[in-house]
Write a structure and sequence with these properties.
Helix content: 40-55%
Radius of gyration: 25 Å
Strand content: under 5%
Structural class: mainly alpha
Largest sheet: none
Number of helices: 5
Number of strands: 0
Order of helices and strands: HHHHH
Shape: extended
Distance between the termini: 62 Å
Length: 166
């Protein structure tokens, strides 16, 4: 049972903190990531270092999304054209937010196409693999239900990573 609090008592004191000025500096945060200890064989349960690396990756994706969304003209999507399609019930800020989401969606779609091309042309050729087709994805097809046990385990190297260029 929670302790009873008299209505005459004043609330506890607190101080506000500004995470930008009161938190760790960018150098301190980067230093924490420089010393991550992530073993080659993953443990059964993620460690604190795994969580930190995951948060850093999520932060990088968020920054990429923001940069992509706010880059006017990327993929031929211009903020100045928002007025042309403006509906009376939709204000400009909402339309601009949708424009930023459209840029991000185009970025992701193109990244998926490039990744798929790399996967098929690089990884599938390494062990003579092939794409699964819709007809092979039926529940009774062992090709689909056991695909993760086929092939050989690969030790990833930097040479196997997908390209980052255009």
């Amino acid at each position: 049972m929670a302790p009873q609090v008299s209505s005459k008592e004043s609330p506890p004191n607190y101080t506000t903190t500004d995470p930008i000025t009161d938190g760790p500096s960018m150098e301190e945060m980067s230093a924490a990531f420089a010393n991550l200890n992530i073993p080659a064989d993953p443990p059964e349960f993620p460690t604190a270092d795994h969580c930190l690396a995951h948060l850093k990756l999520l932060n990088a994706f968020h920054a990429l999304k923001e940069d992509t969304g706010y880059t006017d003209g990327i993929f031929g999507v211009w903020d100045s054209r928002v007025e042309v399609y403006k509906l009376e019930s939709v204000d400009r800020d909402k339309a601009l937010a949708k424009t930023r989401e459209k840029r991000w969606a185009l970025f992701i779609a193109r990244a998926v196409e490039r990744f798929e091309e790399w996967w098929v042309n690089v990884l599938c050729r390494r062990e003579n693999g092939k794409r699964l087709e819709g007809k092979e994805m039926l529940a009774d097809n062992t090709m689909f239900t056991k695909f993760m046990y086929m092939g050989t385990v690969q030790k990833w190297t930097t040479a196997m990573l997908p390209p980052l260029g255009k």
